[in-house]
Amino acid sequence: MDFKHTEDRRMLGDSLRRYLTDKYDIEQRNKSAYSAPFHDPGTWQELAELGILSALVPPANGGFGGEGFDISVVFEEFGRALCAEPMLATLLGLNLLCRYEQQELVNELMAGTRKVAVAVFEPDNSDSLTDLQTTAEQSGDSWLLNGTKSVVYGAPTADLFVVLASDGGLYLTEDGEVAGYAMIDGGGAGQVTFDATPATQLTDDGVADVEAALDAGRLALCAEAVGAMDVLLAMTVEYLSQRQQFGTVIATFQALQHRTVDMAVEVEQCRSITTLAASKLDTPERARYVAMAKNLIGRGATLVGEEATQLHGGIGMTWEYAGSHYAKRLIMIDHQLGDRFIQQQRM
């Protein structure tokens, strides 16, 4: 990674932070994150115009990023702003479509004119790519999909689905019956049912590529957690510096100082291992290092979220206080794309 590329990434992060600070406050976030379509279409289009989506795509496919550090820069800023736009779904979809030379679709996704969702996991198999029940049957020059996929990120607004079937093949379809909903920490997901749904086969052996895309998604979640943890720690320190008990600012209490120091240590450990995982994303060691990062993030983010809630007291549980939403998001990140216990088995 040369210095010029480092500077480019820093400028990308600074631009995204300024945009989200100016245009995406917590009130707007909560208003859009929990009501259909579970994101703000105007914000999404502006992100595309800023080139944020293109930062997830390699230069060979018309973007200007696509590496582990590019993903980390973008998603750390999303975590700082608690942004609920369907960026994870887009990252997964772009990662796979770039592998299979779907350039026209990639261009439309980067421009924000279309949205994609990757349908992998199923109601009875929420963490594994084996023993899937969704089938693909060839019918002339096309394929017919049958089955149900669960917790499909970005499904409520997707007009394109990349589907992993039981035969290990990857299929592309524009159809599917979507039952969309807001996730508990905001943002949209859905259950997608395919009933003799016409599709195009991308490959007859896509499991390894899906795992690689999921690892890119796991790295993104780690970076998002680091951004959210950083903000929540600062909010907690500020609150302790203002809150008084028995006429004394509680930030002077040694026991509380120790707890905030523990939180700061967790943030820096998580930041370091996310950086390490980003450096390994395009190497043969990818899976192990991403699993290590996701495992540590699962533990560290949960600790920071819970500690922040306790140190805030009652206000830390209220909807009106932004800290409660950060804490909820941090705890839920552990459960996305395989929790800490599943990652431990992959290490």
Task: Give the helices and strands, then pairings.
Blueprint lengths: L2 H21 L2 H8 L7 H9 L18 H14 L5 H13 L3 H9 L4 E4 L15 E5 L2 E8 L10 E5 L5 E4 L3 E6 L5 E16 L3 H36 L1 E2 L2 E2 L4 H26 L6 H27 L9 H12 L6 H7 L1
Parallel strand pairs: 1-4
Antiparallel strand pairs: 2-3, 3-7, 4-5, 5-7, 6-7, 8-9
Helix pairs in contact: 1-4, 4-7, 4-8, 5-6, 5-7, 7-8, 7-9, 7-10, 8-9, 9-10, 9-11
Question: What report would you give on this structure?
Answer:
This protein has about 350 residues and is of the alpha+beta class. Helices cover about 50% and strands about 15% of the residues. The chain has eleven helices and nine strands. The strands form two sheets. Strands 1, 2, 3, 4, 5, 6 and 7 form a seven-stranded mixed β-sheet that branches. The chain has a two-stranded antiparallel ribbon with strand order 8-9. Strand 4 (about 160-165) and strand 5 form a beta hairpin. Helix 4 (about 70-80) packs antiparallel against helix 8. The longest helix has about 35 residues, at about 205-240.
Shape: globular
- The Cα radius of gyration reads 20 Å
Largest sheet: 7 strands, mixed
| SSE run | HHHHHHEEEEEEEHEEHHHH
Continuous helix count:
11
Uncertain regions spanning at least 5 consecutive residues: none
Q: Could you tell me the strand content as a percent range?
A: 5-15%
The total strand number stands at: 9
Features:
globular, 347 residues, 11 helices
Write a short abstract of this structure:
It contains eleven helices and nine strands. It has 347 residues and is α+β, with helices and mostly antiparallel strands.
